[in-house]
Structures are given as structure tokens and as C-alpha cells.
Amino acid sequence: YNVFHAARQASVKHIIFASTNRVTHGYEKDEPYSSIVAGKYEGIKPGGYLMINEDMPAKPDSFYGVSKLFGENLGRFYYEKYDIPVTCLRIGSVNKSNKPELIRDFATFCSHHDLAQLVEKCVEADNLTFDIFYGVSQNTWRFWSYENAQSKLGYSPEADAQSYR
Questions:
Q1: Most exposed of 55, 89, 92, 130 (fewest Cβ within 10 Å)?
Q2: What are phi and psi of 46, to 5 degrees?
Q3: CB neighbours of 163 closer than 8 A, spacing ≥ 6?
Q4: How many CB atoms are located within 10 Å of the residue 134 CB?
């Protein structure tokens, strides 16, 4: 709240909120996502399932996810009440090594380059209102959709966690 309030007082033209994939992490208890994050791909075709997207109901898995969901809702409020464009990035698995470290990462990995590209495209965009984008690379086993970022920003992730196998 303090950051959003200060941004409004400073007449900031666009807020980019670092949210998290944890606002929809609860889907990973459901099939086929639970099998994918466990690395059990037998009988599953890559991309042959519903991609989790920003229009689906939130399913946070922790108080952390709930707190980030609060931030997203605060962003919607600030856009609707104060007309400040707010972009929420549901960032995937980013780590210091810039490669998958856990089995789950083969679905959720976001490379440094891809995340930087997404943020840069958000900064440069001038047609945003209130938007949510998933920060994920073009992983063979991904289950988050980046189509919203692709259509609105021209986001085109390049990395695929599969190349690290």
C-alpha cells in the first residue's frame, strides 16, 4: 500500500508490481499439473492441457500468495480509482544459476533474459491499463500462459528449460 500510495503522490505514470506465480500455485495439486511438477510426463502431451492464465480464479497456496494477491487487487483498485496503469507480473522460477534447479523448474523456469525482456516491454508499453502477465520462459512443460503478454506487449520468450536436461 505504501508503495502504491507514494507512486500516486509522485504522479508516477505506470506501476509494475512484482507478483508471484504463488497466487495460482494451488492448481499444482490438480492433474495434469501435479504430474508435470513431479516430472511424471507419461501420457501427457506437452501443451496438450489447459494453460493456467490470468483469467482463471486465484488459488494461492500460502499467506505469501495471498499477500501478493492483495497487491494485485490493490493494483486494480489504483487503476480504477486513480487511473494509474498497473501491471502485475506473476514471476516464475528465477534463480541465481539461471537454469532449472528443481524438477518443477522444467515447467516454471523464467530465464534472466526473458524476465528482463518482459519488464522492458512493460516499461515501454503505452497502452496498458490493469494487466496481469505470467513471467515464464518458453518451456516445453510450462503450464502458465504467456499469451496475454505476447498479444499486448510482443513478449517472446526464448529460453526452454528442457535444453538443460
A1: 55
A2: -50, 125
A3: none
A4: 29
